[in-house]
Amino acid sequence: MSAVLHPPPGKGRRPAPPVRPSPAAANAAAASFAALTARLDYLEPAEVESVRKAYRFADEAHLGQIRASGEPYITHPIAVAAQCAEWKLDAQALMAALLHDAIEDCGVTKPELIERFGAPVAELVDGLTKLDKLQFNTREENQAESFRKMLLAMARDVRVILIKLADRTHNMRTLDDVPREKWQRISSETLDIYAPIANRLGLNQTYRELQELSFRHQQPWRHGVLSKAVTKARNRRRDLIQKVQREVESAFEANGMQVRIAGREKTLYSIYRKMDDKHLSFAQVTDIYGFRVIVNSVVDCYTALGVLHQLYKPVPGKFKDHIAIPKVNGYQSLHTTLVGPSGVNVEFQMRNEAMHVVAESGVAAHWLYKANRPDGDGADRLGTKWLQSLLDIQHETRDAAEFWDHVKIDLFPDAVYVFTPKSQIMAMPRGATVVDFAYAIHSNIGDRTVAAKINHVQVPLRTELKNGDVVEVVTAPVSTPNPAWLGFVRTGRARSKIRHHLKTLAQAESQELGQKLLTQALRAEGMEKLPADDAEHKELWDRLLRFTGNRTLAELLTDLGLGKRIASIVAKRLMTLLAERGQRPNALLITQERYTAHEKVSQGAVTLDGSENASVQFASCCRPVPGDVIVGYLGRGEGLVVHTADCGVARRLQHKDSERFIGVEWADEPIRPFETNLLVTVANGKGVLARVAAALASAEADIVHVDMDDDRAQDATDLRFVVAVRDRTHLDTVLRVLKRTPSVIRSQRVRPGNSGDSGD
Fold first, then answer.
1. What is the tens place of the pLDDT at every residue in 602-634?
2. Which residues, other chains included, contact 438 with Cβ-Cβ below 8 Å and sequence gap of 6+?
3. Domain end position, chosen among 470, 490, 510
4. Which of 450, 469, 712, 742 sits at 20 to 30 Å (Cα–Cα) from 80?
């Protein structure tokens, strides 16, 4: 039986083929604003005019530029704007879409865009330009995920991502015009980065299209084979699918339900992924075809499910309720797979109209869907509080500025994504600093950090990182962690590593100090030096450790350095043990030590040059500086605390706990400045603090801290400084310079318990 071709009604012959416009005419039409106008019917006339101005500016900026296809370059921005108009984005977004390549390709500046089109449009274009500069240099899966998150996090305004996706979609549609050697890279990047972002934002149509276009250009042979197989299967099963649709429509009609049924075919890329992931042949992929059932309400979704399960048997384990538990991007539907006629599996998705809009357009649903339906509550319509709140704001206020303030959220609020100099992406918690970054790379890098650059500019180590920063850490082999870092690091890893290093350092220094103290105490008992820690003296040390209760010699020396043990008592016990081994004290050494100790110039005194860290503290009550007469107090667990000899605190401790004081002395050349307190009384007046600070700077004294009385109504005010000086001589010079400074009435060093060293 031959098929009969019926001519169209009223015509007895086949119509003439349409006249195709010339390529030049087609290009001119595509490059004109008219190609966009028909899609802008949802905008106000004034907004359409603003978009027209942006078109004219972009057309002029791109004049003479040609795409790989031979078309005028302006056809690309128009196509991007047209896609954004499909999503019903606002006029600002459409203007940015038309201008998105103006900064990058045409030398237009951001200030120029601000002047012509306003700051919001310029910010959108600038955000797109910054995203374009990011280069994805690796194919590792975890790096792709980080790059996706970085793009989302950098785009503080969701419109930037939407325009970027429209841009990528048009580029993929025209990829045939690009040299074939670029297909693989561009397709891989689209599959790894942009398609998942579209999915994350719920842009289902864009997501599917990007996957299909990438698959066609990345693996053209496999795409072609699958395309032919699906076409054959479609022709074979056309009658079957039509039968299913008729039976389903009849079932709903019999139950008095108004529904809209639409066919759905699995994309070629989805089929390929399923075959590849589950090692199936094409014949084993049974859910190529499916139907969407659009109903009026959420209750109807579940009713429709019951109707379908009465009509066909469900496949066990193939039911998913995404209405009760929506996907993270707001997607909601009921999914079930049924065994249809001839044993063919058919998937059904049930959703209401609002869910359908969100499923197809995701974030763009906020512009597409008007929340004015009386049936169903907000949660039913959109599924997540965030989506619903945006919809409510738009519906209630119609204020674009307020709406976008709420849309401008960081989709990943707890993380920032930064680059190493080699383009590796690192995810850091928000508020993380350069030091956190250094420890995230390696603890050795963190320990040796001395400086850093962000985007090739030198910055302080406490600088907080921002999305997209390129961070370079400068290290030095001799550098060690600074205790001050604990005040600004954010990550637990950095904090624990710094504390561990400082604790280890403190133990090493305390051990060294303990060895000095024990040696000094042993000399007072008549023994020149400590016995060696070797096999010959092992029994001796073991007996001493049993006496002190320590597990190791290192622990004993650390305890001595921290003041937890008194060196003279340990030395007496050690001398007793040595005497049992036949060693006798040196009487001359005992006499010499007693004489020099009496004269306060003991040869065994601990020498201080400022290089001591955790094991030695300079008391904040008197703040000794080189040149002061000093005493050392072994606080319990505090290590060695150094006071000036005339400090009132030290005198009280000496009266109560004299056995804990040891001889200390300054080195001939201390290696760093020391802090001391100054009280400067000045006559109130404009600029007086600046003059005093300048005087201190001229005397080469660093200001560590300054405090002042709030006595503006009085004639005179006290300024309290903590300054760093080299020694007593330098301090005297500082006080003399202050005395000669205008407005200074009196200057003096301040220490509790004494009247101070006056500079008058």
1. 334 677 877 666 567 888 888 899 999 898 887
2. 445, 446, 449, 452, 473, 475, 494
3. 490
4. 469
- Indicate the range of 294-303, 442-451, 658-667 predicted with least confidence: 658-667
Listed ranges 73-82, 337-346, 708-717; the one with the highest mean pLDDT:
73-82
* Residue that is written with structure tokens 């029994």 in the block: 539
Tell how many helices (H) and how many strands (E) occur in the chain.
31, 22
The answer to whether 292 and 356 are in contact (CB under 8 A) is yes
Active site residue 105: yes
- CATH number of residue 716's parent domain: 3.30.70.260
3-state helix, strand, coil in the chain (%, to 5): 50, 15, 35
Same domain? 710 vs 577: no
Structure tokens at 356: 């359908």
User: Which letter, b or e, does each residue of 674-704 get, where b requires 16 or more Cβ atoms within 10 Å of its Cβ?
Assistant: bbbbbbbbbeeeeebbebbeebbeebebeee
5 belongs to a structural domain? no
Q: Which of 105, 321, 555, 727 is catalytic?
A: 105
Looking at per-residue pLDDT, the higher value among 707 and 660 belongs to 707
Whether 397 is covered by a domain: the verdict is no
Closest CA to 213 of 194, 232, 235, 234: 194
DSSP characters for 231-274? HHHHHHHHHHHHHHHHHHHHHHHHTT---EEEEEE--HHHHHHH
Asked if 728 and 625 touch (Cβ cutoff 8 Å), the reply is: yes
Average pLDDT over residues 170-183: 89
User: 431: domain range?
Assistant: 415-490
Residue after which a domain boundary falls, among 466, 490, 514 = 490
Residues 430, 475 within the same domain? yes
Backbone angles phi, psi at 342, to 5 degrees: 65, 20
Task: For strands 639-644 and 616-618, give the pairing.
Answer: parallel
Distance CA 153, CA 553 (A): 54
The SS3 assignment for 475 reads: strand
Residue 435: which CATH number? 3.10.20.30
Nearest-angstrom CA–CA distance, 623 and 621: 6
Does residue 33 share a domain with residue 177? yes
Q: What CATH number is given to the structural domain containing 353?
A: 3.30.460.10
- pLDDT per residue over 546-594, tens digit each? 877 778 888 888 777 766 677 777 887 788 788 787 777 666 665 655 5
Q: Are residues 681 and 659 part of one domain?
A: no
pLDDT score of 53: 92
Strands 289-295 and 345-352: parallel
**Tokens read off for 28:** 């001119």
Pair (468, 355) in one structural domain:
no
Structure tokens at 139: 């194919």
Clarify whether residues 82 and 213 are in a common domain: yes
Tell me if 703 sits within 8 A of 723, measured CB to CB: yes
Residue 512 shares a structural domain with residue 656: yes
Per the structure, the count of domains in the chain is 5
Residue 378, burial from CB neighbour count under 10 angstroms (0-12, 13-18, 19+): middle
Pair (138, 173) in one structural domain:
yes
Count of other CB atoms within 10 angstroms of residue 60: 11
Given the structure tokens 């499909």, which residue do they identify?
Answer: 86
Residue 395 lies in a domain: no
Mean pLDDT, range 270-292, rounded to an integer:
78
Tokens of 418: 């930064």
pTM above 0.85, yes or no: no
Q: Given the residues 44, 49, 60, 104, select the one marked as catalytic.
A: 104
